[in-house]
Design brief:
Blueprint lengths: L12 H11 L8 H21 L4 H16 L1 E10 L2 E9 L4 E4 L11 E2 L5 H8 L3 E3 L11 H10 L6 E7 L5 E11 L6 E2 L4 H44 L6 H18 L12 H12 L10 H4 L12 H28 L4 H28 L8 H12 L1 E3 L5 E3 L3 H7 L8 H19 L10 H5 L22 H16 L11 H13 L5 H9 L2 H8 L20
Antiparallel strand pairs: 1-2, 1-7, 2-3, 2-4, 5-6, 6-7, 7-8, 9-10
Helix pairs in contact: 2-3, 2-6, 3-6, 7-8, 7-16, 7-19, 10-11, 16-17, 17-18
């Protein structure tokens, strides 16, 4: 009965050097066996270098199996990864049967995991940390080969020789197992036992593979950690203001949908625009970080839903003031009327006083309603409304102390006269400053080589083709392509958002009209805007992320509404 052969872990580097020196010494020159062994050692070094340069885990696992099969002349290879007291099959290959499952290119694997019990050869290797070399599985009863035999029965395959090696990482932990089946004679293709010489070399390869897997996992974990941290920061900024909650996430999702559409397009002028997985990742992080500077923007500006609003809506003060003026006027008219009656005035004179007072009070009520209406944000406030506000601000009344006061203070007039939206010019500059702060904050992060363009991409989403954007005033080709892309998606999201206090969500036809107007003003890239519209990018985003169409028909502009 054949006995399993146990191998040791990879020898120390100095031992390897001494073995290699012995093999290459002059007295071994011309020995075919020695020359073949030297070739295998050199091949092992080449494989190690190839594995160390791969960081995608699925690609790495597939490459490990491909290389170890070639290295040992094995027909089949199964790679197990240890997880939660089980061995999970990640790669399953059988060259003669044309089977490739798992990895980047293979089919999915539906095989159950292997429990860590010593009767199973792979589990035994994982538990004991030793290699097992079996010349013929039919000649041993040391292990339970139910699994391979069931596979052979179902497929007609014949599992004969087997070499199973532990995958030991740099911390001496067993992270997985390599199971090789059916060594083939490279000249005849005949199934032969795995050469004992391959045990130590395969263990060395398995250990290199384990270290590469650990490194790939670490890199993937770090990238995932960084991306999660970025998303948490972006979510925190959005949650800082419920009014704009979700804006960053929506812009990021819309940006990636458009980037994917550009990547797949073969239409001019974007037929040569292609994003590698690394570029997609870089753009995704940049889009998540494009508004990071808003962490410093005062909440009362972000959430300013009315023109007179600061920490609260000062329209309440104006309303109380106007009510005071109306009541004071009513009281003064009543007092005058009583005096006329006391003095014996004619009914005609008293009626004339009543009519005059009623007219004045009605005018004051209209002024009150007009002011409150102007406090609402609008798409555009016409000159006639601003002129009327200026006239109202010049009117005065006497307060309870007899002091003369204006109907509207200068600051109230300034804010009520805002033509579009709800923020004044000073507040707009504070809002715009978030782009410069975004650049400043991102400049302090030591991005890796793959992410080095994030500050340029994220900081350019408010730049304009005509050079009138901010924060750097870039123009034309000075603006990175990804920045131009995010400029389109950021504006489109803002126009369709249903959580803005100063407007309702716009229908897409209106959004497209505004985007094209911005192109005509040389603010946005014409080709990107037309691609966004013609390729129905927003509709694709809605479908992918299950975004309902919440846009409402636009209200009439303020100028078309009847004066109160």
């Amino acid at each position: 009965m054949a006995q399993p052969q146990s191998g040791k872990t990879s020898p120390a580097a100095t031992e390897k050097d001494s073995v290699y020196a012995f093999l290459t010494s002059s007295k071994n020159a011309g020995n075919p066996y020695v020359e073949h062994l030297i070739q295998q050692i050199n091949r092992l070094a080449e494989i190690g270098r190839a594995l160390s340069g791969e960081h995608d885990l699925n690609t790495l696992l597939e490459k490990i199996c491909d290389e170890v099969r070639k290295f040992t002349y094995a027909d089949a290879c199964t790679l197990y990864i240890a997880k939660e007291n089980q061995l999970h099959i990640r790669i399953f290959q059988n060259k003669s049967m044309g089977i490739r499952r798992g990895g980047k290119t293979g089919e999915s694997i539906n095989m159950p995991p292997v429990d860590l019990i010593e009767s199973n050869v792979s589990a035994y290797v994982a538990l004991k940390g030793v290699s097992v070399n079996i010349p013929n599985v039919d000649d041993t009863d040391l292990f339970d080969f139910t699994g391979p035999k069931e596979f052979d029965q179902e497929t007609g395959y014949h599992s004969t020789s087997m070499l199973v090696c532990p995958m030991r990482n740099h911390e001496n932990d067993i992270i997985g197992v390599l199971q090789l089946v059916n060594a083939l004679n490279p000249d005849t293709g005949e199934i032969i036992p795995f050469s004992p010489d391959y045990v130590s070399l395969t263990e060395s390869l398995a250990s290199q593979a384990a270290v590469s897997i650990t490194n790939a996992r670490l890199i993937n974990d770090m990238e995932h950690l960084f991306e999660s941290f970025v998303e948490v920061m972006a979510t925190a900024i959005d949650e800082k203001s419920p009014i704009t909650g979700g804006h960053i996430r929506r812009v990021a999702n819309l940006t990636m949908v458009m980037a994917e559409a550009l990547h797949k397009s073969d239409k001019r002028p974007f037929q040569n625009i292609h994003f590698t997985p690394e570029k997609f990742h870089e753009l995704r992080i940049a889009s998540w970080m494009h508004d990071i500077g808003k962490v410093t923007t005062p909440v009362e500006i972000i959430e300013k839903s009315k023109k007179l609003e600061t920490i609260f809506d000062r329209a309440q003060f104006v309303d109380l003031r106007m009510q005071y003026i109306i009541q004071s006027t009513q009281l003064k008219a009543a007092q005058t009327q009583l005096k006329l009656i006391h003095d014996g005035a004619t009914p005609e004179k008293i009626k004339k006083l009543e009519e005059s007072a009623a007219k004045t009070i009605q005018e004051l009520k209209e002024v009150r309603e007009f002011i409150l209406r102007c406090n609402e944000p609008s798409e555009f406030l016409e000159d006639e409304y601003i002129e009327r506000l200026q006239k109202i601000s010049k009117k005065t009344y006497r307060d309870e102390h007899g002091n003369e006061q204006p109907f509207l203070t200068p600051d109230e007039l300034k804010n009520l006269s805002i033509r579009k939206g709800s923020i004044n010019e000073q507040e707009r500059q504070i809002m715009k400053n978030h782009a410069q702060i975004t650049l400043d904050m991102l400049a302090k992060i030591p991005f890796t080589k793959k992410l080095k363009n994030i500050p340029n991409f994220a900081g350019a989403h408010h730049e304009c083709i005509n050079g009138l954007g901010y924060p750097l005033g870039l123009q034309g080709e000075e603006i990175p392509f990804e920045g131009k892309l995010m400029a389109v998606t950021d504006i489109a999201e803002a126009l369709t958002a249903k959580d803005r206090p100063y407007k309702k969500a716009m229908p897409l036809e209106q959004v497209y009209k505004i985007l094209r107007t911005m192109v005509a003003n040389n603010e946005l890239d014409r080709d990107l805007v037309e691609f966004f519209i013609n390729e129905k990018v927003y509709e694709a985003y809605q479908a992918k992320h299950e975004i309902p169409d919440s846009a409402q028909p636009l209200e009439e502009p303020l100028k078309n509404k009847k004066d109160p």
